[in-house]
Design brief:
With 430 residues, this protein is an alpha/beta fold. Helix content is 50%, strand content 15%. The protein has helices at residues 4-18, 22-33, 37-52, 54-64, 74-89, 95-109, 112-128, 137-141, 145-155, 157-166, 184-193, 216-223, 232-241, 258-266, 283-293, 342-346, 348-360, 382-391, 405-408, 423-429, and strands at 173-177, 198-200, 207-210, 228-230, 248-251, 272-277, 298-302, 316-322, 363-373, 395-403, 413-420. The chain has a seven-stranded mixed β-sheet, sandwiched between helices. Strands 2-3-1-4 form a four-stranded antiparallel β-sheet, with helices on both faces.
């Protein structure tokens, strides 16, 4: 079995070179290398932490390297970043251990001259880093300047700093208990039996936060494969929809399926749930997940939800419109999200609005439409709802909420609950 640092170097190389998602790479590497206990925890912290702190790490390394970072061999830069993260951000790792491990990685994976260069840069970093002050919030929090400017304009400087504080650090694993097979109380008692530290979520009645470094597979071993799904934000969306047994519900952008599963569980697996997604290849995740959880009411279909399926217009009791978004609210769980290009984010509102318009056509009078994202960006959130209501007089807004990482102890998240007016509701409003 290889060490946590060597496994982290291999995984970081894959993430940074091949654009692998950190969470998926971490899960695969833990299984491949047989990491467990303290080694698994250290490995996870190193991969997540190094990716989320790239801008900060590169700033400090640029002050300690006599070569421009963009001229370095990518593998040397990867080792420097990994080692610098330990020196700057991990108090439990002695500086000399971080340097020695970096040198050993250079010796094993790179050419002879690399270890001397790595050693010199890291030792210079140890001597000088306390005197180096990050010049901007972007460098301090390792989030691109355009995102900070966006948040400052939309939420103000104090709220922006609060958001930035909540975006770094390895996040809790969050579970939604499958109440088809167990209860939250029973699940918490079972976890306690195995000394797995956990607590109820504040925002959700069915949620559990796992407070220690255990893997998804280990939780499955304790609770059972069909006892839970992940993600607290999904639970809040499910609660907003208010799906009931016997309803017909459409999830217009369903993959990988967490919200569809939560809705089906809330329906007590009674009724009908149609899970749509643009990518047919991803629908297998929904089908396999439903089977694992003992859910039988979900059917899947590949479809571009910018246009409605004609046979379901006016037929649904509830519709979830969880649109593709920039993901700026889930940087802690998906650290690579912070490095998205601004241009790609600015294209999203047009797509999101088209999907919301199309999704609205499925509803019966009196039905519920929930629009949600996992981003903090009013262009994708509040502005979309305001535009929709200005052009759809047959809908009213019942609730709109933005969750922030520090204040609500969850991902950055947005949802709006809209009701399609029927004759009876119209009379009440008048």
């Amino acid at each position: 079995m290889i060490s946590a640092r060597e496994a982290a170097y291999i995984s970081l190389s894959r993430c940074l070179k091949d654009n692998k998602f950190a969470n998926l790479e971490i899960d695969a590497a833990i299984k491949k290398h047989g990491l467990f206990g303290a080694e698994r925890s250290l490995f996870t912290v190193l991969v997540y932490g190094t990716i989320e702190r790239l801008l900060t790490l590169d700033f400090y390394l640029s002050k300690c390297s006599d070569k421009p970072l963009d001229k370095l061999d990518p593998q040397i830069l990867c080792i420097l970043r990994l080692s610098a993260y330990q020196i700057l951000f991990l108090d439990r790792v002695p500086d000399h251990a971080a340097v020695n491990e970096g040198v050993e990685l250079a010796k094993k994976y790179l050419h002879k001259g690399a270890k001397g260069f790595v050693n010199a840069v890291l030792r210079r970093l140890i001597l000088t880093h306390s005197d180096i002050i990050p010049p901007t919030l972007s460098v301090k929090y390792s989030i691109p300047e355009w995102i900070i400017e966006l948040w400052t304009e939309q939420y103000g400087q104090d709220k922006t700093i609060e958001i930035l504080e909540g975006m770094n650090g390895v996040p809790y694993m969050t579970l939604r208990v499958n109440t088809l097979v167990t209860t939250r109380k029973a699940a918490l008692e079972k976890l306690a039996e195995y000394n797995i530290e956990a607590q109820p979520c504040e925002q959700s009645e069915c949620g559990i936060n796992i407070l220690c470094g255990v893997s998804f597979a280990e939780i499955e071993d304790v609770l059972g494969k069909g006892a839970f799904v992940q993600d607290e934000a999904s639970q809040l969306t499910v609660e907003a929809i208010g799906a009931l047994p016997g309803d017909f519900v459409i999830d217009t952008c369903s993959c990988p399926g967490g919200k569809s599963f939560g809705i089906a569980i809330a329906m007590n697996n009674k009724g009908k749930l149609l899970s749509l997604d643009l990518h047919e290849s991803k629908l297998g995740l929904v089908e396999k997940g439903a089977e694992r959880l003992g859910i039988s009411i979900i059917s899947t279909r590949a479809h571009d939800s910018k246009e409605p399926l004609s046979e379901y217009i006016g037929k649904a009791d509830k519709v979830l419109c969880d649109v593709p978004c920039s993901g700026l609210g889930v940087m802690a769980k998906k650290p690579e999200t912070r490095y998205k290009e601004k241009a790609s984010v600015l294209k999203l509102p047009e797509i999101q609005y088209a999907i919301l318009n199309s999704s609205a056509e499925y509803l019966k009078p009196g039905g519920t439409l929930v629009y949600s994202t996992c981003t903090l960006n009013k262009l994708e959130n509040d502005n979309i709802i305001e535009k929709f209501l200005s052009t759809h007089s047959d809908f009213v807004l019942e609730k709109m909420a933005t969750l922030f990482p520090v204040k609500h102890k969850s991902d950055g998240f947005f949802h709006a609950k809209l009701i399609k007016i029927n004759d009876q509701l119209s009379l009440k409003i008048e």
